[in-house]
Amino acid sequence: MQPYQLNPEVAPQFEMVNDFIINHLGSNVPLVEKIGHYIVESGGKRLRPLLVLLAANACQYKGDRHISLAAVIEFIHTATLLHDDVVDNSELRRGKDTANAKWGNAPSVLVGDFLYSRAFQIMVDIGSLPIMGVISNATTVIAEGEVLQLLNSRNPDTTEEAYMQVILGKTAMLFEAATEVGALLADASDKERVAMRDYGRHIGIAFQLIDDVMDYKSTAEEMGKNVGDDLAEGKPTLPLIQAMKVASEPDKKLIRKAIREGGLEDLEPIMNIVSRSGAITYTEEMAQQQADLAIKALEPLSNTSFKQTLIKLANIAANRSA
């Protein structure tokens, strides 16, 4: 079941978002449109735009601008994916060739820029300065998070605190923006807006923690990307950081070497070390803690079907396998 199917009331709105996205990919440059359609239509749960819809509805919104606002969030997310795949030299996403693998790095970066620009065009039409403020701040923080991750790459001395700072920026920030702008669009009270903002941040952290677990636990078919991509790129994610805290000295040296050098030569022994160390369980427990915090943040909201769906999504984020 796709996440949008958890709530029959929001499912038709979700389909309207999909239609809106497709209808706003038009460009006078055929390659822009071709790559835009390829990446947008390549699958994915569209969890971030769904959160916009659920947040707006949970805060009693009655208009239709949440449809275009959800598309804005998806365009920004898609732009970051295009840029990320270039930075990471990724070849597989959602089980398909990445855009940069098919068309090259330069077109991928430029189409990512196009999608960012299209998102801001749509925001102008929505016409809310507070919403523009939240999203423009989010895009800045996301860019900073990506740069920080780049600085941490190949650094085996990266701490858990530094890792958390990265995922707060590169992943959780857009989740947080998605739920906060949904509340802003609904003219929610300050208490409800903060509740939705905090919910988004915590579910975003949970989502990324599990994403990092899957690199050491899932298959390529389940993830839609190559197993060991994080290790190949020398990314010190939490499973590795925690494993190094408790591993034997030889195992610790192997992990440090793998992070410094990148590549997949030691993937199998390192996956075994991570599994034996309890680092997977540690990271999964942290993800559930974040999901619990997300659910707790929703307490100020009225008990509607949309709130219940948000609660279900928090638990799904912390317990998914794909």
From TrEMBL:
Q: Name one Pfam family in it.
A: polyprenyl_synt
Q: Superkingdom of this entry's organism?
A: Bacteria
This protein's cofactor list reads: Mg(2+)
Q: Keyword set for this entry?
A: Magnesium, Metal-binding, Transferase
Answer whether the UniProt record assigns the keyword Cell membrane to this protein. Answer: no
Q: Which family does it belong to?
A: Belongs to the FPP/GGPP synthase family.
Name used for this protein in its record: Polyprenyl synthetase family protein
